[in-house]
Structure formats: structure tokens, C-alpha cells
Automatic annotation (TrEMBL):
Residues 69-402 form the tRNA-guanine(15) transglycosylase-like domain. This is Queuine tRNA ribosyltransferase. It comes from the Eukaryota. NCBIfam families: Q_tRNA_tgt, tgt_general. Keywords: Glycosyltransferase, Metal-binding, Transferase, tRNA processing. Gene3D superfamilies: Queuine tRNA-ribosyltransferase-like. Residues 33-44 have a biased composition (Pro residues). InterPro entries: TGT, TGT-like_sf, tRNA_ribo_trans-like. Signal peptide: none annotated. The keyword Iron does not apply.
Length: 403
């Protein structure tokens, strides 16, 4: 058994003259900056110049239907003309998945690239060194980029404008100024200001604060853009969820600023009925001399319902994703699930014209069942052709006052 240690070993050593008490250290912790007022108003319209179409970008109205708010127009951009109403395919990483975008410039007059993903890789510096997105991806046709905010707030679960790269964990800060700087480096024809994306289920007061925040961010983005335009147009993003008062406030404020066009963003309703009701309210409140864009929605039924309400362009990965997952959009057979065995002996093309006229459904079924990579390519190509032809028919119907 080990010997016991003296109790004095564990007691403080007393001295006859206690040491003086140490001087208190000054508190060097800085006071945190005051939290910004969530109800602070954005700068007034008088802080910006009045709108004049720049020489490198303008909207040309060709015809407005006598039956609805549908209209046919053209966007004139530095890299070509975009006919509206038009479908905009999403090339997330400056590439359409499974297909080469170069032969599709005539059908996809405008494509959408994602700032968030391109900031993470290869980065704005690399794209700028390549001469911008058009040179980097070898596209001599118009491009639009978003602000990156949608992915930050959705992928980062609403954590704010500070996020970590999903590639290597690098901590990154997205502000109105850094978003615009990245889009300047990318050199897209149309860029978008930073905004906040609130969820559908949100209290009215929180939604109000979010709209004001988006307005402040969009005003900062616009000022940064106007200081160095670089032959780029900027679209505002109108917010307010399905609250008509907030949507009206957003449309009125942003419509008074010198934006080149207007996106309809934020929560757009829980179903198509709410979407169409929202568009009926919002579209008449946007400046009629400038183009508009419905952000993130471009399925067939939504396009058919939104064009008569005055929407010019639509973006979505809907048709290309369907193709990669084995679904064809056809006029002849409706939606075709190519994996189904009923197409095994159908030696006819999906449609009478356009698309995959040179390939039968039986052949496409065979490619899919044998896991040939070309199956995804051919189905994606067909769906792009389908969307292009559908938009062309809609433009002609508007010209004929049939829509």
C-alpha cells in the first residue's frame, strides 16, 4: 500500500504578507456592431438615374394579343436575338447535361448558368482568364446568370449569405457586391441581383422583412452594376410570396429603378392555381416596356397557363431532367416512359416532325434497357426540340390572336 501524502501537500501555501491583488485587465472585447434594422427601407428611386435602354440591350415588342396579355417580342443582346415567349434551358455548370449545346444555339437562344456552382468551380478568375463564359464554353449566343442566392439559401438551409463550399468546405461570403463581381467576370448578357429566398410557409411579418432585405440587396447590386456595366443587362427580382400587398410594394419599388428587365421570383405558390393567380396580379404591375422572366418554372402546363398572362421567358431543367430519367415529351403519344415494354416493337419516331425523326421508339427503348449512355443524350435532345417547337407554335398563335 503506497504511503499517504501529507495533507499540507494539497493546501495553499500561506505567507505572512499576502501578494497584492492583480490589477483588473481592461476589457478589450469590441462591442458587436448594432444589428441592422430589419425594417430599414432601401434607397429611394431618386438615388438612381431614370431608365434609358442601353445601346447594347433592348426589348422590342412585336405584337400583343387582342385576347390576353400574351405578347411576342425580341430581346436584342450583344450575342444575338432572343424571341419571346421563349424557353430557357439550364446549363448549371456552363454545360447542358448529356448534350452538346453548340448545335442547339438556334433552338436554345438563351441559356441559364448558375453563379453559385461556377463560383465554386472553376471560379470567376478562371472564367475571366478564358475570356468570359461565351469563350469558355464556346457559345456565341445569349447567356443569363443568376446571383447564386437561390442555391445558397436552399442548399445551405437558409443559413444566410455565408456558406461553405460543398466541394472542399471553404467558407465563402456572398454579398450583393461579390455576386455582381462574379457575374461581371462571367460576362453573361443578363445578370441578376442578390436576393433572399424565403420559404412558402412563413409568417407575414418575416416575409415583409425578407422583401425589404431583398430590396436593399438589389439596390446595392444595381448600383454596383451601374458603376461598371460591361455591356450587361440586369433584371430585378420581384418578391412578396403570395401576399398581394407585398408583391405590389415590390413591383412598384423595383419597377421605379433602372433595371433592364424583371424576374418574378421567391415563393410562387404551392400549386399552379396559386401561381396563375399570382401572375394575374403581378404582371400588370411590371413596366410594359421591359422584358420579364419567370424564375425556375418551365414545365409545359405552367408555360401554357403563364404565356396568356404576359410572361416572356421561362427557365427550368424540367425537360432535360425528364430526358435523362427516361421520359419523352411528344405531341403524338403524350409523355412516353421509354423503359416500358410496350415501346419494344414500336418502329415509329416519337413525333411526326422535329425531334428524333431518325430514331424509332423501339430503338430508344433498346438503348435505355441496355444502359447505353446515348439514350440519355437522344431523349434530352428530343425534349429540347419539343420545347423549342412548342414555343414557336405559341408565338405564332399569339401573332394570330389565338392565345
Amino acid at each position: 500500500m503506497p504511503p499517504r501524502l501529507p495533507a499540507a501537500r494539497f493546501l495553499p501555501q500561506l505567507t505572512t504578507s499576502p501578494s497584492p491583488s492583480p490589477k483588473p485587465r481592461p476589457n478589450r472585447r469590441r462591442k458587436p456592431p448594432p444589428f441592422p434594422d430589419p425594417y430599414a427601407l432601401p434607397p429611394p428611386p431618386s438615388a438612381f438615374p431614370s431608365y434609358e435602354p442601353p445601346p447594347f440591350f433592348r426589348y422590342e415588342l412585336i405584337h400583343r394579343s387582342t385576347r390576353s396579355r400574351a405578347r411576342v417580342g425580341r430581346l436584342h443582346t450583344p450575342h444575338g436575338v432572343v424571341d419571346t415567349p421563349g424557353f430557357v434551358a439550364v446549363a448549371t455548370n456552363a454545360a447542358l447535361k448529356a448534350v452538346d449545346h453548340r448545335p442547339l444555339a438556334a433552338e436554345l437562344q438563351l441559356i441559364f448558368c448558375n453563379t453559385y456552382h461556377l463560383m465554386l468551380h472553376p471560379g470567376p478568375e478562371v472564367v475571366a482568364k478564358a475570356g468570359g463564359l461565351h469563350s469558355f464554353m464556346n457559345r456565341d449566343a445569349p447567356i443569363i446568370t443568376d446571383s447564386g442566392g437561390f442555391q445558397v439559401f436552399s442548399l445551405a438551409h437558409g443559413s444566410g449569405a455565408t456558406f461553405r463550399s460543398y466541394r472542399d468546405g471553404t467558407r465563402m461570403l456572398l454579398t450583393p457586391e461579390t455576386s455582381v463581381a462574379a457575374q461581371k467576370a462571367f460576362g453573361a448578357d443578363i445578370i441578376v441581383p442578390l436576393d433572399e429566398l424565403p420559404p412558402y410557409h412563413i409568417e407575414r411579418d418575416a416575409l415583409h422583412r425578407s422583401v425589404l432585405l431583398s430590396h436593399r440587396w438589389e439596390a446595392r447590386s444595381l448600383q454596383t452594376h451601374l458603376d461598371d456595366r460591361r455591356k450587361q443587362a440586369m433584371y430585378a427580382v420581384v418578391h412578396g410570396g403570395i401576399d398581394e400587398d407585398l408583391r405590389a410594394m415590390s413591383a412598384e419599388y423595383l419597377g421605379s429603378l433602372p433595371f433592364d428587365g424583371y424576374g418574378i421570383g421567391g415563393s410562387l405558390g404551392k400549386n399552379r392555381d396559386e401561381l396563375f393567380e399570382l401572375l394575374r396580379f403581378v404582371m400588370p404591375r411590371l413596366p410594359p416596356d421591359r422584358p420579364n422572366h419567370l424564375l425556375g418554372i418551365a414545365d409545359v402546363d405552367s408555360i401554357v397557363g403563364a404565356v396568356p398572362l404576359g410572361v416572356d421567358t421561362f427557365d427550368s431543367c424540367f425537360p432535360t431532367r425528364l430526358g435523362r430519367h427516361g421520359t419523352l415529351l411528344t405531341r403524338r403519344f403524350g409523355r412516353v416512359q421509354i423503359r416500358q415494354s410496350k415501346w419494344k416493337s414500336t418502329f415509329e419516331p416519337p413525333d411526326w416532325e422535329g425531334g428524333l425523326r431518325g430514331h424509332s421508339l423501339a430503338y430508344l427503348h433498346h438503348l435505355w434497357k441496355t444502359h447505353e449512355p446515348m439514350a440519355a443524350t437522344l431523349l434530352t435532345l428530343h425534349n429540347i426540340h419539343y420545347m423549342s417547337e412548342m414555343m414557336g407554335r405559341m408565338r405564332q398563335a399569339i401573332l394570330n390572336d389565338e392565345i
